[in-house]
Design goal:
The complex is a heterodimer of chains A (about 120) and B (about 110). Chain A is mostly beta strands and about 120 residues long. Helix content of chain A is about 0%, strand content about 50%. Chain A starts with a strand and ends with a strand. Classes of the chains: A mainly beta (about 120), B mainly beta (about 110).
């Protein structure tokens, strides 16, 4: 498996502000994903980050709220815009396609608390 | 659409007890099946996987067998340890662009 890092690891933010989360992989991967894990809940896919084109969003998630970039095969960012307390969650990036494998591996997550 | 259902937690066991966490799925075609584990305060780690019917995934004493006839992928361990305390997620990857569909998670607490 690869080494996947996320920054920041945690943050406390005020409502109405925005936070950008970075995901870095130490090798090139085919696919990168962003998930949300609300307190005590399972994981929900926000979007698939596509290299060089717009992300593909799941139902219930929109680009204006969660803009995503993926400028190359090892890096992606997720921005949580105009935050409210309901956005308090763990945000995780995952990658797929390491050495042709189909398994998804996850980063350590970013713990966000919105006051 | 595809879905995964896990037994509800929390599950509380004594050390060295036998563990079973049930997982069933609904999917078209032949999905790959996974168990992930989330230790307190950490991200998700892949525990084991199976990619076709009758495959058995195993790791760290945990096992799960891909049962197509019962659409199940139950997680088992013969003797749990306190260090196994975590939340366990069953997941599938089907024909939906590679994304993972997760069950709701089962919290396991092992007491000494």
């Amino acid at each position: 498996s690869a080494v996947i890092s996320q920054k920041p690891s945690r943050d406390i933010c005020q409502r109405g502000t925005s936070l950008t989360i970075q995901c870095q992989v130490d090798s090139q991967v085919t696919m990168m994903f962003w998930y949300r894990q609300q307190p005590g809940q399972s994981l929900t896919l926000i979007a698939t980050a596509n290299q060089g084109s717009e992300a593909t969003y799941e139902s219930g998630f929109v680009i204006d709220k969660f803009p995503i970039s993926r400028p190359n095969l090892t890096f992606s960012t997720l921005t949580v815009s105009n935050m409210s307390p309901e956005d308090s969650s763990i945000y995780l990036c995952s990658v797929k396609g390491l050495a042709g494998q189909e398994t998804q591996y996850f980063g350590p997550g970013t713990r966000l608390l919105v006051l | 659409g595809d879905s995964v259902t896990q037994m509800e937690g929390p599950v509380t066991l004594s050390e060295e007890a036998f563990l079973t966490i049930n997982c069933t799925y609904t999917a078209t075609g032949y999905p790959s099946l996974f168990w992930y584990v989330q230790y307190p305060g950490e991200g998700l780690q892949l525990l084991l996987k199976a990619t076709k019917a009758d495959d058995k995934g195993s790791n760290k004493g945990f096992e799960a067998t891909y049962r197509k006839e019962t659409t199940s992928f139950h997680l088992e361990k013969g003797s749990v340890q306190v260090s196994d305390s975590a939340v366990y997620f069953c997941a599938l990857s089907g024909n939906q662009g590679g994304k993972l569909i997760f069950g709701q998670g089962t919290e396991l607490s092992v007491k000494p």
